[in-house]
Amino acid sequence: MPAYVVLIREKTTDAAELANYATAARAARGDHQITPIAFYGAQQVLEGAAPEGVAILQFPSSEAARAWYDSPAYQEALKHRMAGAECRVILVDGL
Asked: All domains of the chain, ordered by start, with CATH?
């Protein structure tokens, strides 16, 4: 069953750190099967506060998503995202 990682960027706090994250996160993709479904495109907020951006990544399973998220390469990239922005990340199973 596919699974999705939803990354919600609420607020950028350090653009340079966020740029470092973007570079490191691309490298952390490695051999993980990741399909970008939405990637910081235009949004129409129907309810609640508008985030700065939203990305949705599809994985073959929640285990595959966790393998990517928990990988040493992504955990290293994550340090830059945490230093550069306030975000929420949600892993949700698909149908």
From this structure: 3-43+50-93 (3.30.70.100)
